[in-house]
Structure formats: C-alpha cells, structure tokens
C-alpha cells in the first residue's frame, strides 16, 4: 500500500474528529453541580451468558431529594471490522482524488519523491479541470450513500459513523473545492470548527480556533499569497479569484493549498492534544438513567445491571448524579475495566430449572410409587369411557371409525398424544373387528400412525386384519385436508369420529359435518381456541390436560397413571405461586393506599424481583 | 310452526346466514354508507405504537396468514402497511406461513406501489419472504437474520439491500407488527421474541378466534391488539382520522375530495374493515335470534315432556 | 431392537436438549434440532407424495366408489407440481436475464400465480368462510339454557355478539358517563380481559403440565405406543 503523509494525516484528522468525547459536564449559569456518587464497583454477573455486569455505588451525599437520577455510562468498545471497511472506502476515494488532482494542481506538501515520477504535471485547460471536477464529484456522490450506510452499520451507537463520514466528506469536498480553484482559506477551518462544535466546550473550541488563526506561519504565508492575488485581481480579490479561478497561475494555486493545509494540521494537532489530555481517550455511552428509590436512599447505595454487553470486550463504567436542574455531578469511575464472562450454567434460568426439577421429579416419583403397586385413583373422564361405546356402535352399524390426529407434524406433542390415543382406540377396534380409517395431514404422522395401528392389531391378536391403506396421507394444506375429510365423511358416513391432536379453524367444520351425519364424536385438543367449537358440536370433548391424560387413562397401566399424579404436584406449585403473587400485589396496593411508604417500597422490591428475575 | 323450527333443516340456517351476509354487502356497496367506529383502548394502543415512533423507524411486519383468513385479516394488514408507509417508517415484510409472501406481495402491489410511488424497494421496504420452521425461524432471527435470510424474496443478497445494512437481528427493529391467523403467529412471536428480549415492542392483529388467547399477554408482552374485523375497522377509523387527507381520492389538482358532509372520500380498499362491520352486525343479530329460537324450542319441548 | 434404538435416541436427544437449555454454551442446540426436523419433514414430502399417488391410482384402477375424485386429485396434484417445479411460463429475473429458471415461481401473471390466485385462494377462502354457516347451525343446536352455567354462558355470548358490532353502541350508548363500564363494548373488553383471561390461563397451565408429563412419559419410555410394533 502506498504511504502518503497527507492521506495519513487527513485520516488521522478524521479519526480525531470522531474520537472526541460526547460527555460534557459544565456548570451553567451559576447553578451548583451536585456532589458526586462514590465507590462504584463493577463486577461480572455470576452465572450468566456473558452479557451482564453488575454495578453498585454509594449515593451522592446530596441525595436527599435533590438528586433526580443517576446516569450510568460505559466506555465504548474497540473499533469493529465495519469501521475498517469504511476507512478503506474513504481511502480509495482519496486515491481517486489524488489521481485526478495531482496532474492538474501539483503535489501536495510532503509528497514522497519516488511517487512523483508517476505523474505528468501540466497546467490543465478549463475543460479538463471541469471534467475532472465533475468526475470526482460524481464519484463522491455515488460513494456517499455507501459511506452513510457503512456509517450506520452494526455498532452505530458505539461509533459515531455518521459524523465520521460527514467529516470525511467535508474534508474531501473542501479539497475538491480547492481543486476547482476556489480561494476560501478559512473554509476548511470553519468546517473543522463546525464539527468540533458538537463535541467540546466552547472555550476549547475558541482556543483551537485562536491557535489556528494565530499560526504565525500561516498568516505570513497567507499574506504573501493574498498580496499576490490582490496584485492579480485588485481589491476585490476574494470574489474575483473565485469567479476567475482559471486565471490563477498553477504555482500560486499550489502555495495557497500548502498554506492552508499546514496551518490546519498545526491547529488540529494542537486541539487534539489538548482534548486528549483533558478527557482522556475514553468515549462514553449513556447506558441508563435510574431514579433512586426510597429504599436506595435509606441504604445509601444503588445497584444496576448493565445488559447486552459483548463478552469479548472490556468495559469501563462511570456514574454521575444528576440534580433536578439537569446538572451532572463529577463522575464516580470504576477502578478498572471489566469484561463479562460466560459461565457454563445460565443463572437466569434457575427458577425455571427448579420448577422443572420439582414437576419432573414429582412425575418420576409417582411413576415409581405406582410401580410399587399402590393403587392410584384417577377421576372418571366421560369422553374416554365412551370410546368403547363408540367403537361398539361402529361395529354394530357396520361402518368405519374415523380418527384424525390433528393437522400438525410429529414434532407437536399433541400429535404424539393423539397417536397414543389412536393406539388404544385401534386396539379396541381390532378387538371388535371394526374398520378404522386414519387420514393424515403430514406424511411423518402417517408413518407413525401405521406403525402404531399395526402394533395395536398385533396386541389385539388380529395382525391379519390390519390394512395399511386405511392410514394414508392427504395433504399438508389445512383446508385441502378439511375438504377431503368433509367429502369423505359425507360419502362414507363413519359411525364414530375421533379428533385428537392440534386443530385450528377446521375444528368446527369437522365436528359439524360429523354431527350432520349422526356420528358419535369424541374430540381432544389442547388448543384453547378450538375447545368451544368441539364442546358445542361433539358428544365428548377432552379439554387440555384431559387429552394428555387420555393415553394413560385408557391404558390403565400404573406407570402411566402415576405420571398423572405427578402433574397434580405441578398444579400445587403453580397454585402456591399464584396465591403468593396475588397476595403480594394486594399487599402492595394496600400498603400504598395506607401510606406506608417503607413497606410499599419493600414489597415493590420483592414483586420486581419476582417479575424480573424469577419469572423471566 | 313449532315442529318446523324443531326439525329445522340446517340448510335453512345456511340460507339465512348467506342472506344476512350478502344483503348488507350489496347495500353497503351500493350506498357507501357504513357504521361509525369508536376505537377501543387496545386499538388505540396499536395506532399509538406506530404513530409515536419517529419517522424512519424500522418496523418488521410479519404476515402470518393465508388466503383462507385473508377476508378477516387483509384489511388490517393493508392498514398496517399504509400507516407505516404514511409515517415514513422502513418496512421489513416477512412471513412464517408458506403463502405469507403472496399476502405481502398483494399489500405491496395494492398499497405501496399505488399510493406511495416514491418509496423504493430495498431502501424503504423489503419483502424478506417465507422461511420454514415456524417458531424456529423466530428463534434464529432474533439473534441473526442472515442465518436464515441470506436473500430477500427476489434473491437479492442481504448485503446488497441498503435498508438491511444496519439490521442484524429482530432486536434491531423498533417495532414488530404481526398479522396472525394461528400457528405460527402472535403467540410464538410473544414467546420467542418479546419475552426473552423485553425491550422489543410488538403489536398484533389476529383472527377473532385467537384474540381471547392473546389477552393474557397484554400489555407487558403485547403492546396492542386488533381483534378480527372489528379491530381492523376501529384501526381504519383512527388512521383515516389521522391521514384522511392523504388517503382520500384526489381531484385533478391533487386536492382531496370530500362528500356532502365534508368527510374525505376514502378509497374502498382502506375501508374494507369498516364496510365489513355491516354484514357482521346483521350476522351477529341472526346468531342471537337463532339462539333465542333454539331456546324457545328447548323450553317448549321441556314443558311438553313435563306434561307427559 | 426395533423399539430399543428409537427409545434410546428419544431419551438421549430429549434429555440432552433439556440440559442444554440451562447452559449458556448449548442454548442454541434446540434450534439446531428444530432445523434437523425441518429437513426430515421436507424429505418426508416425497413419502407423502408417493403415498398420495399410490392410494389414488389404486382407487382409480379398482374403480372404487368416488374414483373420479381421485382422478381430479391426481390431475390437480401433478399439474401444480410440474408447473411449480418447472417454473413453467416464468420469465427470467431482471438480475439474471440469461438464466432460464432464475425467475420467481410465483411471478405475477405466470401459470403458478394463476393457479394460486384463481384456484387455491378462492377454494381455501371458501372453506374458511363455511365456518360462518357452521357456527350459526351449531349455536342454534347447542346453545341451550339448561342450567345456571349455561344461562351465564348465553348472557356472555349475547354481550360479546352485540358488543363486537355497532349494535352495542346503539343499545347502551345512552348510558351516562359514570356507567361507562356497563356499555356493551366496554363490557366486552372486560369479559375478554378478566374472565376470559382467567379461564384461559387456567386451561393453559393445565395444558403446560400435561405437556410436561406426556413429554416425560415419552422420554422415559413409559408410553411407547407411538413407536409402533415389535416387542423389544
């Protein structure tokens, strides 16, 4: 890659522009800044995915009603790849600029000697200059959106790309303007000042500007250049030189450019050094603004968890107190940067794990108890007691039994539950020698259903009666499937219809069609939205958990019945949590109404902990 | 009479229902008269979520429905797109249902291409299309879009779509708008997107059957909900109130046209919901009537049985 | 063997995924498993298509009752399949004009689009619309004030039916502001938000527990009926 000081310096300048601090903390209009918070401790959150850091700090001594909030800032992360890409793009543009610029306007200061041979220097015609200018401008314009897109990419909040791009474009446009022959020596400086304006206090800006303007060398050189221009164009040299730029001799134009560049660099380097010493190189990002609560004030400390951090980065944190007049205190800065660590176990899911262990443990425990032979009582489920009746009726009438396992695939637990019910129904059907037909909406379900029904026929001692063609795939399309079933039901008039699985809008269409042909219908689903339709149109409906219990109920095996008992423990846990939640919420409202602020604050803390930590 | 109703062939009911729906459609079509709508809090919340975002915000519109439920959901899908476009948001369309992209295409053709001609594909809106996997899709794109969506529905690579450059995952969206007819839909978006990432905002429109199941998620996980045609109609009323002048038919001088009462003349495609409330009203009244008749028969029957 | 190996796969897969859920390093395994399933399910389309052909061809060759329907099904299936897979009548995309199949299979105006727009769309919409008729007939037949619960249900149904249309505003629009909550449209919202949510939550909790128990039975091999035949 070619090394050119001018490019490097301009890039450095751009970097500097975007590496300025965002934070401004100045006391205004005689209002006092609050006392700062202290002892900020930043620690990696234990047992997390590596994206959280816990912060804890002592409140500002002023905090007895005067502090409105605390602002938490974190340092910005290091330069990501996108920024490199942006730099490269700007650099490419810069090369182009040089290629157009140099042949016409000579070499900028500090141009490497060995590079000079590449260019043939000549005084350009106005047309050439115009053409070069137009091309450069169009290139710039075409690149502009790309630069802006890059500017806004990924870590846009961390890196002020937009300003970075603006600075780059500004710089390029200035040079472009110079190339076109405009004599506006202060323009670049003004642009720099404008950019700086967003960044640093006015006093510093003024200093930078004065530094720039006082650069003795620049003044001297400018005076020479200006007098030369005045000699050419008279008193109105500023305006005239712009309009009649073509007439400025090449050498003079070159010296104009040199003067400006050097002066700018001097001023900007100075400004940069000052800023660097004043606020350090750290750039900050506001993470959150939190209000101290009653309990925080009583305890004299506060905590906050910074989230969505990158575990490959190090972060420095600082906290400032903000009073009601929006004035920030001096910051409390954490002693050293922290990086979030990823642990094997995700503590956010602790509550979930406990519940899983309790519920699963209870199910396993009761299965174990059932195996010891202790009798378990399960309430009667009317819909399931009617299975035999339905199959018997179909046999008597000499008609078939229709069994639909819902319209979802085998990854849906309801489909599996449906298939387990199918195995019991098929066994009864085999015993009664009734024909059972199973159209499916998924081919995997068809395969599973075939295996299951075959096993049931085998278990019933009727393997010869099994006909795999009665279990077939229709279509994945919901309403196509329903249309088929409707037609089939109207034509073949099955005597018993079972709908066991996941159903959507088709539930009522199926159940009503079944009703119109006078079939005895038993439905089971865990789709709450479809339950009312099944309840209205079917003879029996297994509601939610009854449906999942069906297989165990029908099998009558102690193992399976034990699992049902285990579910009851889960219900008890849920019940306790619901009661606790209701109690806490009620107590919170009562305490707030009764004006007991401390109790309300304590309760609020517990409720918040339950909601934010346990239940998320 | 009693016997007639007791043994009423259900085809009579079908015929009545047909007339109750068809006649109001014809009358509303001929006269253009509709019922006024009084937006409820939930619908207002949906409107405010979109309205209060600053112009240029990123909105993910997931159209998870199919032609079957188009009658119920297309009006709100249309209105969501119109509202986002009118407000100047960037729209990222996608679908969890195989035929969802067609629903998106219809919306783009009828709304964006016709009434927002200055919006550019790839810069102001993009159709990311369908990916199989139902809630699995949400689980993946919540952390990384490009893992599944390497291109949009036209085959343009993700990196070549300007409005996607600053988008890595669903978390970069300012709002999720979901139009849902069932599984996978609003419930899955709530469970796998908003619940693990509570900073995400989401509003939804769903079928009438689904709506009761989504109430438990309001307002923490779901910030607004349009329930069926009624919700769509109320939302239309709000959008018309806010953007009526833009939406109205224009005269030769591009000025909005008004009717005799001074109300804007809104194109039919933007009042689909409001217009469908007519047939809905009559159909609901029929249902009430049928239930009453059914009960009268039931009581007469019971009394007769009691006498015996 | 026929049952042991699938049972082992189920148990190991299931428990590994449960444990993976609680570790920061392995939380995405569930998504990977879901993608595997999608691949399997996609391959199973071939199985489904083959079965469809077999069943219907057999029906036609046996001249079973309704064999003509099978003919219609097969023609529709093959037409859609060939047009869709072959991208028949689709123009190349603007980006790659030199490649014959680069266009979108559902290009506006193309044969597949035509099938979708004028066959699939109206057909599915018709099926869905049938719900209106069935709801009416089911309501007429099943909504009976048999006991107190049924009367409550009836009353709620009336409120919702009226409250979800302009009729609600007509009927109770005159109520003064302090009785705002009794207006039908507001009552509808209250019923949905409070009573319906409470009931739904209870059902959902029961369902969730049922799912846990069923899943455990499957993983532990207590319930093996879904695996089909062949003892050990």
Summarize the structure.
With 308 residues, chain B is of the alpha/beta class. Chain B is built from ten helices and six strands. Chain B folds into two domains: 2-34 and 280-307; 41-247, Rossmann fold (3-Layer(aba) Sandwich).
- Approximate shape of chain C: extended
Overall SS class of chain C: mainly alpha
Q: Strand content of the residues of chain C, in percent?
A: under 5%
CATH architecture assignment name of the largest domain in chain B? 3-Layer(aba) Sandwich
Extended strand count of chain C:
0
Radius of gyration of chain C, whole Å: 27 Å
Overall average residue pLDDT of chain B: 88
CATH hierarchy class name of the largest domain in chain B: Alpha Beta
This entry's quaternary arrangement is heterotrimer
| Helix-and-strand structural type of chain B | alpha/beta
Number of helices of chain B: 10
User: How far is it from the N-terminal to the C-terminal residue of chain B, by CA?
Assistant: 21 Å
Q: How much helical structure, as a percent, in the residues of chain B?
A: 40-55%
Enumerate the spans of chain C where pLDDT stays under 50 for 5 or more consecutive residues. none
Question: What is the chain-wise order of helices and strands of chain B?
Answer: HHHEHEHEHEHEHEHH
What letter string, H or E per element, gives the SSE order of chain C? HHHHHHH
How many domains would you count in the coordinates of chain B? 2
Unreliable runs of chain B: none
Tally of separate helices of chain C: 7
Q: Would you kindly provide a written description of the structure presented here, covering whatever features stand out?
A:
The complex is a heterotrimer of chains A (616), B (308) and C (232). By secondary structure, chain A is an alpha/beta fold. Chain A has three domains: 31-76 and 283-333, Immunoglobulin-like; 81-279, no CATH class; 382-556, Rossmann fold (3-Layer(aba) Sandwich). In chain A, 57% of the residues lie in helices and 12% in strands. In chain A, strand 6 and strand 7 form a beta hairpin. In chain A, helix 14 runs parallel beside helix 19 (545-555). Chain B has helices spanning 2-6, 10-31, 41-51, 70-87, 100-115, 135-141, 186-194, 211-214, 228-247, 272-307; strands at 58-64, 90-95, 125-130, 175-180, 202-206, 225-227. The two termini of chain B are 21 Å apart. Chain B has two domains: 2-34 and 280-307; 41-247, 3-Layer(aba) Sandwich (Rossmann fold). Chain B is of the alpha/beta class and 308 residues long. Chain C has 232 residues and is mainly alpha-helical. In chain C, 71% of the residues lie in helices and 0% in strands. Chain C has seven helices and no strands. In chain C, helix 2 crosses helix 3 and helix 5 crosses helix 7 (184-220). The chains are: A alpha/beta (616), B alpha/beta (308), C mainly alpha (232). At the A-C interface, helix 12, helix 14, helix 15, helix 16 and helix 17 of A face helix 2, helix 4 and helix 7 of C.
